[in-house]
Amino acid sequence: MAILIDSETRVVCQGMTGWAGTHHTAAMIEYGTKVVAGVTPAKGGRFHLGAPVFDSVAAAAKETGANASMVFVPPAQASAAIIEAVEAEIALVVAITERVPVLDMIRVRHALAGSKTRLIGPNSQGILSPGLCKMGVMATGSERPGSVGIISRSASLTSEVIAQVTAAGLGQSTTVGVGGDPVHGLSMRDCLELFLADPKTEGIVLIGEIGGEEEQEAADYIASVRPAMPIVGLVVGLHAPAERRMGHAGALTMHGRDRADAKIAAFEKAGITVASSPHLVGDTIGRALAARAKAA
C-alpha cells in the first residue's frame, strides 16, 4: 500500500507549459501518473502533452476531477500558486520550487491552516509510490514496490537509499522528499504518522541533514509512541562548517541542536537505529527487519 498517492491520483500540473514543467510532466506521464490537466494563466483552452490547459486550478479541478497538484512555478510566484491550489481544495500539493521566500511560505502556512490540503515541499524532489504514481522529479529505475517507507531531506541520498533498499530485496511502499527549504509543508513527523498507520509498510528510513530541528521532532515522536516497526536513521553533515549553507536553503547550522551530531544523538536516544554511513542504509534496514521477523 502507498501513502498520499496511488494509481487513482489525478494530477494537475501548475506551470506545465514551461520548459521544466514540460520536461518533468512528460516523465511523470511516461511513468504512468494520471496527469489530467495543466494550469497556465492566459493559456487556457490549449492542449499540452495531450492534456487540456486551464487558466486556474479551480477550473481544472472542476472539469477533470483533479485531486493533486504538481507545482512547477518560479520562486517569486510559487507561494501564490500553492495558495491557489489550497483555495481550490486540492487534497495534495507537491512543490519542487527551491528557495521560495520565507515570508511567502509563512503566508502559505496560514492558508494551509484548517484547509483540506496537504503540502509537500517546496524544494522537494517529490513523492514516489513504485509502479503506481510519481509526482515530482525523483529519479526512477531502481525503485521497486515493497515494504519500506522512506522520508528524506536529501534528493541525491534518496536515490542512493532507494537503490540499496531494492538491492536488499525489500522495495519501497512510498518515498517522500519533505523538502530542503527552512519552511515547508509535511514534516518528517507527519510522514512518520502516515507510515506507521499504513499496514503494508513494515520499516521506515529517515534521511536527515544539518539545519533546523525536524529530526529532533521526529525522534521525540518516536520516543513517545515507541512503535514496533523498525526505523533506521541517517544524518549527513557531521563535518559541515557552522554558519555556512550547504546546498539546501535549510541546511545551515546556527546553534547546537541543528548540528548533525545532535540529531544523531536524538535518534539514538529515541531507539532509532542509526546507519553509520550512507552506503550502509540498505543493509541496516534489512538486518532490522530480519531481526524483527525472527523475534516474531
From TrEMBL:
Cite the GO molecular-function annotations of the record.
succinate-CoA ligase (ADP-forming) activity
Q: Where is the CoA-binding domain?
A: 4-100
The top of its lineage is: Bacteria, Pseudomonadati, Pseudomonadota, Alphaproteobacteria, Hyphomicrobiales
| InterPro entries in alphabetical order | Cit_synth/succinyl-CoA_lig_AS, CoA-bd, CoA_lig_alpha, NAD(P)-bd_dom_sf, SUCC_ACL_C, Succinyl-CoA_synth-like
Keyword annotations for this protein, in alphabetical order, are:
Ligase, Nucleotide-binding, Tricarboxylic acid cycle
Entry EC number(s): 6.2.1.5
Q: What is this protein called?
A: Succinate--CoA ligase subunit alpha
Q: Which Gene3D superfamilies match?
A: NAD(P)-binding Rossmann-like Domain, Succinyl-CoA synthetase domains
Taxonomic source organism: Labrys neptuniae
Q: What's the top EC group for this one?
A: ligase
Domain of life, per lineage: Bacteria
Matching SMART domains: CoA_binding
Keyword Nucleotide-binding found: yes
* Alphabetized Pfam families for the sequence: CoA_binding, Ligase_CoA
